[in-house]
Design a protein that fits this description.
By secondary structure, this protein is α/β, with parallel strands linked by helices. The protein has two domains: about 5-120, Tetrapyrrole methylase, N-terminal domain (Cobalt-precorrin-4 Transmethylase, domain 1, 3-Layer(aba) Sandwich), CATH 3.40.1010; about 125-235, 2-Layer Sandwich (Methyltransferase, Cobalt-precorrin-4 Transmethylase, Domain 2). The chain has helices at about 20, 25-30, 40-50, 80, 100-110, 125-130, 150-165, 180-190, 215; strands at about 5-10, 35-40, 60-65, 85-90, 115-120, 140-145, 170-175, 195-200, 210-215, 230-235. The strands form two sheets. It has a five-stranded parallel sheet, with helices on one face. Strand 2 (about 35-40), helix 3 and strand 3 (about 60-65) form a beta-alpha-beta unit. Helix 7 packs across helix 8 (about 180-190). The longest helix has 18 residues, at about 150-165.
């Protein structure tokens, strides 16, 4: 028997963003699948309901790969796939495998000869890059920067130098409750003419995306506390 396919199903980035996130093919796919590997079962079930799931949720098989369940035997997640069933993979928000531990599931699927099918949907990284006005030809995402203040300042200066040397957009994130200290460090560490884009609460009713020079940002510093944000540096 041939194995099933692993469908990578994007999840909305914010509350009330369903209409911006779903495609007809995605809705068709979730009503074909009754087994899922998810980062957060509560988020996944809510998403499936909003997307128009017709299969009773009591009939779904949900495998949780959240941080408390990654130490177990991941092979258990693949029994259905190897038996010929199609299975969906979902992140807590955005695209599976992009700044997301689901990448490990995808890697294992390839190792086991399972077809991987990515679906169209929202990625905060790409949305921020699209809206920044910075280079989309050359860019790098660095995830979280060091928490240590000295190391963080040095890393920001390093990314600024890379942006200038290669005309390459540098993207990074921070835990939302540490956004304001991160922004303060960026404004302290970078040169006045370096460009910074802040993309915050993407796809939400409070979406905020602005690109300014470091000098101009210092004139009016936004409050980003507990707001999901991406920071982008660029310098020609």
């Amino acid at each position: 028997m041939l194995p099933g396919s692993l469908y990578l199903i994007p999840v909305p980035l914010a509350e009330n963003a369903s209409a911006k996130s779903f495609t007809p093919y995605l809705v068709e796919t979730i009503n074909h699948i009754d087994e899922y590997i998810v980062e957060n079962s509560k988020t996944a079930r809510r998403f499936l309901k909003e997307a128009g799931l017709k299969i009773p949720q009591s009939e779904l098989i949900i495998h949780d790969y959240g941080k408390h369940n990654r130490e177990g035997n991941l092979n258990d997640f693949f029994k259905g796939l190897l038996a010929g069933k199609d299975v969906g993979l979902m992140s807590e928000a955005g695209c599976p495998g992009i700044a997301d531990p689901g990448a490990e599931i995808v890697a294992m699927a390839h190792q086991k000869g399972i077809k991987v099918v990515p679906l169209v949907g929202p990625s905060s990284i790409l949305l921020a890059l699209m809206a920044s006005g910075f280079s989309g030809q050359s860019f790098a995402f660095h995830g979280y920067l060091p928490i240590d203040k000295v190391q963080r300042a040095n890393k920001i200066k390093e990314l600024e130098a890379l942006a200038e040397r290669h005309s390459q957009t540098q993207l990074f994130i921070e835990t939302p409750f540490r956004n304001n200290p991160m922004l303060e460090e960026i404004l302290r560490s970078c040169k006045a003419d370096t460009k910074l884009c802040i993309a915050c609460d993407l796809n939400s009713e409070n979406e905020f995306i602005q690109t300014k020079s470091i000098k101009d940002w210092k004139n009016k510093v936004p409050d980003l506390h507990k707001r999901p944000a991406i920071f982008l540096l660029y310098k020609k």
